[in-house]
Amino acid sequence: MIEKKLQINSEGYSIRCRFFAGDHARGAREFEHVVIMTHGFGSSKDTAGTTSFAEHLLSKYKDWAVIAFDWPCHGEDARKKLTVEECLTYLTIVTEYAQKTLGAKALYNYSTSFGGYLTLRYLIEVGNPFRKIALRCPGVNMYESMSNHIDAVGLKALEKGKEIQVGFERKMKIDHTFLDSLKAFDVRQHEYFDFADQMIILHGTRDEMIPIACTREFAENNVIEFIPVEGANHPFQNPQHMALAIHTIVEFFGKP
């Protein structure tokens, strides 16, 4: 497998990416099928799960490529303050790069948690460039999930119009407009019937961040195939759970 890091420079942004292709594609400039991977809040493109997915996919489908990128304020990204609008702009820029520079005729989306929320929001606010979409533990209750992990002092500061620091290994700034944006766009208040046939949702039964009941209800309301993974937590830390998720998604993407 070929892996390289690249930067997409567009509209004043510099988006840090990991690009994967099969060994046979060395020197190739265009790829008919490209999967765009997006990560969850506080994570990055540089995870073992990203590498494992690319390895599995490219061992099975020879003419495909994978591109994973850091959301604003995550991983190697240079930005300091997180906004939903810039996240959606990043997804647009990466999508256009896959189409115009990599020559993708078919795009696929594999997104997790916060990335899943952003993908669902993108479908409604921007449009659907993807042939198939696989979501793992998507943040269908993103506002509540985020609010629940900000302490009372932080929430009070936001109410006063101040910025606070959030995150895990890397801290980033948010203000009340970020939470207001999450609250204003609740994916559960939108219909996804038009995308249902091209979408699957996987969710761990022991997810401590996004209750599986919320996601199951969302999937049922929109007639989206829902796959519970017994015993899996939010990040699918158990290698067997992650392997099952990756296998399921790779097979789904490969179906006509």
Describe the structure.
- There is one protein chain.
- The chain is of the alpha/beta class and 256 residues long.
- The chain has one domain (2-141, 188-254): Rossmann fold.
- It has 8 helices and 10 strands.
- It has an 8-stranded mixed beta sheet, sandwiched between helices.
Give the neighbour order of strands across the main sheet. 1-2-4-3-5-6-9-10
Number of strands: 10
SS-derived structural category = alpha/beta
Low-confidence stretches: none
- The helix content is 25-40%
Second CATH tier, the architecture = 3-Layer(aba) Sandwich
List the topology elements.
Elements: E1 2-10, E2 13-21, E3 33-38, H1 48-60, E4 64-69, H2 84-100, E5 106-112, H3 114-125, E6 132-136, H4 142-148, H5 152-159, E7 164-167, E8 171-174, H6 176-184, E9 199-204, H7 212-221, E10 225-229, H8 239-254
Parallel strand pairs: 3-4, 3-5, 5-6, 6-9, 9-10
Antiparallel strand pairs: 1-2, 2-4, 7-8
Structural features:
24% strand; Rossmann fold; 256 residues; 8-stranded mixed β-sheet; two-stranded antiparallel ribbon
The gist of it:
This protein is α/β, with parallel strands linked by helices and 256 residues long. The chain has eight helices and ten strands. The protein has one domain: Alpha/Beta hydrolase fold, catalytic domain (Rossmann fold).
